[in-house]
Amino acid sequence: MNSMLSAPESPRGARVLDSLADALMKLFSDLLASSGHVDTDAILTTVTSTIAEQIPVTCIAILMKSDPDMSRVVTADRAHPEIAEYIDDYIATLTRPREAPTAGFSQRVIEAGAPLFVPRMEFETLMSVVSPAGRQYVQDHPAPIANAFTSLLMVPMHAGPATVGTLGLFDWYASGVLNEADIDWMQRAADRVGLAIDNAQVRNQAIERLARLTSLSEIALAVASAQDVRQTLKLIVDRVIATLRVDAADILLVDETDGSLSVASAAGFKSRVVPEFRFGLPSEAAKKSMWEVKLAPANAVDWMSQPMRSVLALEGLKSHVAAPLRVADKILGVLEVFSRDDISADEELPRDDGRSCRRRGRERRDGDRSPKSRAVSLITASFTSRVERPRGPDLEASRRWRDES
User: Fold this and answer.
1) Domains, the chain, ranges and CATH?
2) Helix, strand or coil for residue 275?
3) Which of 16, 72, 259, 277 is the most exposed place for a label (fewest CB within 10 A)?
């Protein structure tokens, strides 16, 4: 990572950028030495805390998720930590900690693609862009801010041509600490942060793809050579959980005598009754839905029995991906994965301007599949493509399949 930042005209800006470059370099060195993965939130935390150490303001970094209607939000304020804590507590009430809808001034800056500097603004004007739920929160939990005016500087965060978020400074007392000279260095800092996050995510995705291909190759070899079906199925669910970093997985097989589904192998569940579940397919619609790779809430799956839904609710498993195990036109069963988090929320930067990013986020929710959904589909394809082949080592076929994947 090239951490050198051009010096702006503002001496304070040069000092902040030097500190930021040093902090990011140390962060990347530590993370790469320990795990190889670079955490996006760690980058945002480093950036906001470094800036807040240099300037007595609240620094807020907002990074759009792969669904650009939602963003990661990281806050820091060294001079008034109670303000940063208040903002964090408020954001946690919206969806989850450090995650909020992309809205307000941040949305305006993202869509305009230009900095916004307001040297003096009434606090009520700031509150006018907050959602009704936010205004209610401020009413129920008075903010630790006693001034009627505030200053705001917010710049778009770029990764190449794409606007991927914002970096903002708030002077809640409009003390004059922010001025127009800060716009230039803030924009440079935001763009370098956006590029650093993009590079980190590309690296993380490459590591994850390699791990998935390795697991898929192991599964393919196990299916081709194994004599014990139960051990093979156990290997598959274990590798699925480890590779996709989900909380639980199972394989359901169809009983040809009555068309019912039973759990052939399961892992990650706390309940011991899951392997004993057996349930039928109540409708033709449920049977048809088994032919699709589906991403859905765990309580909204057509073929799932009520006892299974109850177990998932008790274990807090919310998201569900299922892919059919099939040979030609014949359904053998279903591979399911479960997560306590949103499986569709794979951390990936949008790759276009703000408006098209938001449009593509809506299109993705309407039918695109997440990377984990595609990985589940590849695993089932590898498994079922070998079901009817003669048993025994098939290394050349495994290599061909891995190259094609």
Assistant:
1) 11-201 (3.30.450.40), 209-404 (3.30.450.40)
2) helix
3) 259
